[in-house]
Amino acid sequence: NFHIFYYLLSGNDKVSDRELMNLTAPIDYCYLGGGPSPSDEKLRYDEIVEAPRASSPPPPSAADGKKQWAKNNVMHGKGFSEEQRKANAQRDAEQRKKALLDRARSNQNERFPDLQEMERKDARKGFTEVMACLVDIGFLQSQIEDIFQILAIILHLGNITFIQHETNDHAVIDRSQSLLIVSDLLGVPAVDLGQALQTTVRSTKGENITSQLTIEQAIDVRDATAKALYGRLFSWIVRKVNDFLTPKQEEDFYHIGVLDIF
Known about the structure:
With 262 residues, the chain is mainly α. It is 58% helix and 7% strand. The chain contains nine helices and four strands. Strands 1-2 form a two-stranded antiparallel sheet. A two-stranded antiparallel sheet has the order 3-4. β1 and β2 form a beta hairpin. α1 (3-11) crosses α5 and α6 (141-158) runs antiparallel to α9 (215-245). It starts with a helix and ends in a 17-residue tail after the last helix.
């Protein structure tokens, strides 16, 4: 149920929890259709520059048109290798995406103030109901905190993106900030987590062989990790609920049996 992520992000007004888990707005998370804010990013390569944060781009002038033509001519010219052209094209795509997200962030509250407030109220109500249910069933406060922390880890995992290595087709983690947040919440070294997301290890005749992943393969590993965390969290909650509802000792109580003969 994806609503729990919105409850966590927009319904939890406890500032200390949000700071501890590095939580921001729903639009800042790729798994919720957004992306990380440029101000929170740590990009790997210096040549990937931040897009302008203007709410609307100025109309292009004749000089701007000539500059863009020259830029395109150089980027696709004979002076660059195929890998460099791909890297330049990927950089421009990232800049366009960041510009769109910036405009969405700056305009969302101005364009839909009533809708935004309505969504926040619904999220607060949903978060309060979830908290009450967990407490009533018997979850400890520490267990509830662990549940929300794992949900936060899943959101931050989705913000770990990859770019192509400068000299080959291997995947390289692009935004190190999201990796650091996930490793801190998981309690594992960032280097080990990065290796797990960028490489695969095969055991052949007693020898371990490490292979670098492509961008597509690394994305699959990242998403599979997020799904595994969510699936195991869900299964753990179901087991705990069953444990809480199971009688603690042998008592005389009635049973209801259902026979389905069709």
